[in-house]
Amino acid sequence: MIFSELPSGKSVEGNEIEVFKSDVSGDKYVYLMAGTHGDEVEGVFVLQKLFEWLKEDHSLKDIPLIVLPILNPDGYRMASRVNSQGVDLNRNYPTEDWSGEYTQDKYNPGSGPLSEPENVFLDKLFHKYNPGVILSFHSWKPILNFNGDAQDIADYLSSYNQYPVAGNIGYPTPGSLGTYAPEKYGSPVLTFECPVLKDDLTLQNIWDANEKGLKSLMQSDLLLKKLS
Question: For 87-143, how does the pLDDT look when each residue is reduced to its tens digit (9 = 90+)?
């Protein structure tokens, strides 16, 4: 695929939020994104490897794609879940269930919905390049969490990596992207939770476990069907 770099966004500290668009345009787009939480390097690495392959393979089907490698560059540089203002970007979207209350600092939702420039930038992208489906790479424990009409994608990937599939992550996530995108844009979201690093599990191991499934997904018709 051929990609062009779109104008970047800026984080709280002025770091660039890079974003790339495939040379195929459409009424809706597939979003591939990672680094919402800066300390979740596993998800960032998996998307990095997938993006490298997408750029190298010119035989892929024409898919309108938006790739955002790291939404939270400040947090990534600090190895921090939150951004440099201490806000959890995945609790900062203007959902019906958004709440300013939080029990742990790592879940700080900010002073109000879309208070953070990183999310303002992403929402502007959504307005310009309407999302048809979003794959958001994270890390916690291996799980494929779907919101909206994305269970088929979760099941497909699970057939390769054996990750559990869940329509509910198991705890409240007010102000999350998984709630916001279906609610506001009608776009399903697959939150792809990678396992975290440990002594006997490397970044390369995690990619190796997911390479075949992710490449097969990109070559299938599943994502394109979400755009129709």
Answer: 999 999 999 999 999 999 999 999 999 999 999 999 999 999 999 999 999 999 999
As a whole number of angstroms, the distance between CA 82 and CA 75 comes to 6
Burial of 53 (0-12, 13-18, 19+ CB in 10 A): middle
**For domain 3-225, which CATH number applies: 1.20.200.10, 3.40.50.880, 1.10.443.10, 3.40.630.10?**
3.40.630.10
- 32-84 residue pLDDT tens: 999 999 999 999 999 999 999 999 987 787 899 999 999 999 999 999 999 99
Residues paired with residue 166 on neighbouring β-strands, in sequence order: 145
Q: Indicate if the alpha-carbon torsion angle 49, 156, 172, 123 is positive or negative.
A: positive
Q: pTM of the prediction?
A: 0.97
Interacting residues of 103 by C-beta distance below 8 A, sequence separation 6+? none
* 202/180 Cα distance (integer angstroms): 32
CA–CA gap between residue 180 and residue 185 (Å, rounded): 8
